[in-house]
User: Fold Peroxisomal bifunctional enzyme from Xiphophorus couchianus.
Amino acid sequence: MAFYSRVSGSVGMITLQNPPVNALSAAVRQGIVDTMHRALSEPEVKSVVICGQNGKFCGGADIREFGAKMTGPPLVPMVHLIEAASKPVVAAIEGIALGGGLELALSCHYRIAHSKARLGFPEVALGLLPGAGGTQRLPRLIGVPASLDLITTGRQVTAAEARQLGIVDEVTDLNAVDAAVKFAQSVADKSLDARRISTYPCPRPPDLDTIFERAMQQVRRSARGAIAPGTCVQAVHAAVTLPYAKGMERERELFSVLFNSGQARALQYYFFAQRAVSRWSTASGARWDTSKPRPVHKAAVIGLGTMGRGITVSLAQAGFSVVAVETQEKQLLEAKQAVSGMLERGAKRRGVPLAHDKIKYSCSVQAVADVDLVIEAVFEDMALKKTIFQQLSAICKPGALLCTNTSGLDIDELASQTQSPELVVGMHFFAPAHVMQLLEVVYGPRSCPEAVATAMQMGKKMGKVSVAVGNCRGFVGNRMLKLYLEQAFFLLEEGATPEQVDQVLEEFGFPMGVFKVSDLSGLDIGWKVRKADGLVLPAFTGTSARIRGGSRYSPLGDLLCEQGRFGQKTGKGWYQYDKPGGRVAKPDPWLFGFLEDYRAQHGLVARRIDHQEVLERCLYPLINEGFQILQDGIAAGPEDIDVIYVLGYGWPRHRGGPMFYASQVGLDKVVERLEHYQQIHPDVPGLQPCRLLRKLAAISNPAIHKWREVIQKPRSQL
Ligand SMILES: CCC/C=C/C(=O)SCCNC(=O)CCNC(=O)[C@H](O)C(C)(C)COP(=O)([O-])OP(=O)([O-])OC[C@H]1O[C@@H](n2cnc3c(N)ncnc32)[C@H](O)[C@@H]1OP(=O)([O-])[O-]
Assistant:
């Protein structure tokens, strides 16, 4: 709602009230309309101030209402009512003015912002455009190039930048509402003719066509299939080329196309999913609201390879004192230099003070004796990790949390090396650890709720989105990835090329296809894991070369590694590069010959594989594994899986994540296609729909937010 008061006799004050961000719900819109009419009708009121309760102006349209039937007054007539008012209206912007909130502010005749306020049009991230006149008013106020930048990227600006751009009239360090009231009194008698933005002509730069062409090219490059950014460009174009009223019509048409698109639904689902994962729960019933994190002031990182360095930087930037340990003097020095460089670049980019003095380097593991939490980040070698955990258990003070950065090893096995297995959790960071936003927090069967809560909170403090997952091989992300990789290999055996598979996946919206990513990460990493699992043995020849444990196995990746083709680092992998370390992937004629020889050797006849099959074969087994993970209780809900895939594996955000995508495709269709492929390839693993997927498909494809009701039934019933 919005409530009305009178200040100093002559100022009508409208206060938006809808916690937590004063979003423009039906009740708030109704409140604004009613109180505006009241302010205009009271003769003593000479001017009006609009502000938000609890130091937040307005977070925009109420996203929770998007899926429901529209009630209450629409936004567009509401902003027109404000702009057309005969008394000056001043927006007092504290905290945030985002989306519809900024559109509300732009309909006011003046804007006063607190210096800490942030303003922007984040609609594009929800698959929308600023549809309450934002695309028509902003270019009239600040010009086309700056508007294109803000509207197509969703970038938020500080009050200072907003002042510089001309979005706000004044910035204050004091109370912005008081300042707005004073300001409103000072302009009470002024003419409003020059204050209604919709009446301004839209500036028309001479190189208009070039500006729009460049903007379109830019969004096509960065949007990877998302439709909202390009539609935002079209809406701004209308501001320049059409009169205001016609421009508003065009904005409405374009908004409606976006609003009704599957992409907007996916992005809005994702918005809530990313927030839902902080309300974690574990299979044993521990929960975010009943588990208290332990205080952590000082942390340690053991092992300063690529991952350890990134983790050290993240911890220091988050304000923790860090003890960084690497046992060899030479490696320690190298790591120190690398970490310093990363910190310097980070401080420059983010305009924050350097965090060098937060880190103490040491060659001795004894230096971690007094820390509250240790993150072990040595390479993926269970024996080595076990030794370190035994040492840590003896050295660390009682109550210290022992965490391991691993991408898939058994947390419980490590916990069993310590005196306090309840204090052991996994923290699976993604490379580069100081950049990637995702953290899988892995709880073992013995991890106590406080340990999980502490790791979750640490991730948040480091600016990450932490997702709690159970302990199993590969956890959530890598466990599902395995299925995707395997299918990609099988497709090569059957006649596809790496370029074809990658192209299909890139058209779907992944920044890179599976083979390009493998080349980037290094083919030897998976090879090492497969060797450790006993899958790579020279004895495998003839028919057995393509069978492991009764299922089909493709040794293609192993054969490439045997040739020393480890990907970008060696200049050759699934593609060729101009030099070792080169970045530009080019098809390699050698590989075509290699695949032909391989097929001939194994009696395989290459067939034409179409786009649809590549997509379904790569994605549906991965999705099926996601359902198996839910069935096993490794992830608490589909949102957890989707957030992991969007933030950690490049799944296109405008497709919501693999589980949301499956819900859009239709679970019955996913089951049907998996069964179809299973019939053709009965020996291929991962094609058999799991029980949970079948069960959900059988109860007529319920909406994704209803899945938990089925999952939470005793798993034995599935
Ligand atoms: C014609 C129409 C044209 C207009 C279109 C629009 O305006 S589109 C909209 C354009 N606006 C946007 O896109 C703004 C989107 N919002 C944001 O960017 C951030 O939430 C923030 C910067 C406002 C606050 O960040 P922060 O890190 O301090 O906190 P946090 O992120 O954790 O959120 C706290 C809680 O608030 C909730 N909630 C937030 N916003 C909305 C909303 N609009 N609605 C409903 N709820 C909203 C959020 O779900 C969470 O709830 P929970 O989980 O506690 O139950």
User: Anything to note?
Assistant: The chain is about 45% helix and 10% strand. The pocket of (2E)-Hexenoyl-CoA is lined by residues 20-21, 23, 59-64, 75, 96, 98-100, 122-123, 126, 128, 130-132, 275 (CB under 6 Å). The mean pLDDT is 95. The first helix runs from residue 26 to 41.
